Amino acid sequence: MHVYCDASAEVYATALYLRTVAQDKVHVTLLAAKARVTPIKSPSVSRSEMDACVLGVRMARHYNQALGLNPKNIFYYTDSTNALCWILSSDLKVYTQRRVAEIQTATDKDCWGHVDTGVNPADVPTRDLTRGSRDQRPVAERPATAQQNELRIQKV
Fold first, then answer.
1. Among 153, 154, 152, 141, which Cα is nearest to 17's?
2. pLDDT higher than threshold 60 for residue 113
């Protein structure tokens, strides 16, 4: 399972993809996606990125219970270097520490990696859509990072 997380000032979102390999062919399917509106007294975008990561962890835990996957085969991606640094550290402020504690309890630090904004499918709901917008890619579009034959987590 591949979990992509992203946020903006107005929205944070997560997209889950199931990756299977059969007869040397890689198949990637959108499993679930969720977007939430940030609170009216909106925190910083970095904090919203952390909320997106927590949402991704919770969704992955839910779908993992249903599918019975090995937790070592769940990979998490974010385009936020701040969120990644927080996830990999321990001395943080209370707001961030509570979220990081939930993430660190449920996941292994080695399962987290960086993905460029341009290829992050969770980035789609965070963008302002206009009627004539043609450059928007659908969330259902398969992410290139999950389609590779060999998986590598890009570290910051």
1. 141
2. yes
Residue 107's nearest CA partner among 149, 37, 38, 60 is 60
Q: Where does the pLDDT of residue 72 fall: very low under 50, low under 70, confident under 90, or very high at 90 and above?
A: confident
Range scoring the smallest mean pLDDT among 28-32, 69-73, 97-101: 69-73
Q: How many domains does the chain have?
A: 1
Side-chain-side CA neighbours of residue 133 (13 Å) = 10
Residue type at 44? Answer: S
Give the CATH number, domain containing residue 69. Answer: 3.30.420
Residue 112 burial by CB count (10 A; 0-12/13-18/19+): exposed, middle or buried?
A: buried
The residue range of the domain holding 14 is 2-128+138-147
47: enclosing H helix or E strand: helix 45-67
The pLDDT value recorded for residue 16 is: 95
What is this structure's pTM? Answer: 0.83
